[in-house]
Amino acid sequence: MEHRTWLITGISSGFGRHMTEQLLERGDRVAGTVRNLHAADDLKAAYGDRLWIAKLDVTDTAGIYTVVNEAFEQLGRIDAVVSNAGYGLIGAAEELTDEQIIHQINTNLVGSIQLVRAALPHLRAQGGGRIIQLSTVRGPSRFPGRLPVPRDEVGDRGLRRSGHAGGRAVQHRRDHRGAGRGAHEFQAPQLEAGAADGGLRYLSGCGRQAYRRR
Known about the structure:
By secondary structure, this protein is an alpha/beta fold.
């Protein structure tokens, strides 16, 4: 089996940790980010040098660029960048504070966009790679008591569709993968011969279905 290297934000819990554990178990390398370095001590002890860890709060744009640059510099090629860090906010819209709303947007949307922007030059330079966005079902669906700030369904989907991500207009195909949740696949076409971009593939979806190897 060909082993790959992944950069994943938010590996201390949830899908980020689950994904990291599975990838390390099968022999891949992971560059993971956490807000508290001790949150991944057990994984580091178990997998050693195959787990590269950095402290990062994705609301810190400068920090995102620093961590991404260091990860590519120290690990060389990174095959997939996974934007996982994020959280839900529960409460009536009028009861939430301005600070709560702004912080969630900065985490779930702006942080995700800045991660893509930081990673793209490296992916182009190495001739390709994948960006995987863990998203929410709350874009097309609404749930009472949950503020609708879905990062992929509204905000950073526009970044990929605009063509800034791949250098040209990005093709979009909606792919339902079961478990009641949808995943989206974005394929950037190859550019002309000699172009810096070797063609990047973008996946976004909900939960485990988003990162299955094909």
